[in-house]
Write a structure and sequence with these properties.
The structure is a single chain. This protein has seven helices and two strands, in the order ααααααββα. With about 150 residues, the protein is mainly alpha-helical. A hairpin with a 3-residue loop joins β1 and β2. The longest helix is centred in the middle third of the chain and has 24 residues.
Length: about 150
Amino acid sequence: FMTREELIAKIEALPGELRRLVSGAAPAQLDRPYRPGGWTSRQVIHHLADSHMHAYIRCRFIALENDPPLKPYDQNAWAALPDASDGPIEPSLAILDGLQARWAAFFRSVPDDAWTRKGYHPEYGAVTLERLLETYAAHGEKHLGHIRAGLNQG
């Protein structure tokens, strides 16, 4: 069981860990899938920016609105768009640098009584700020593992 501060620290540390992991990676390494039929490391990096932008905005809606609807998106379709499948990773790394810092600051500002505030996702039902923190701290870790696996193929 991790404390909120430990989870927030994971959110905050993701961009640095990602940059260390891909430092010096050749384009061919970034374009290898982490498993047969899986995304490439390039797609995973762009997915992290897309997914975490969505989640950060969802958190802000939850903080400011009563039970807001949370719009889903097709992450596979987003990962297949040319900017994600073939685009340079630096713009998404730069997005994550700022995004994760803002998101960590946001989470640190959440009052104790607001962690149970929720939004409604059509696929997952009620989603609290607490759950989003837990989910996305783990989400970054999971995808660091995928990138590690993709870079070590071959």
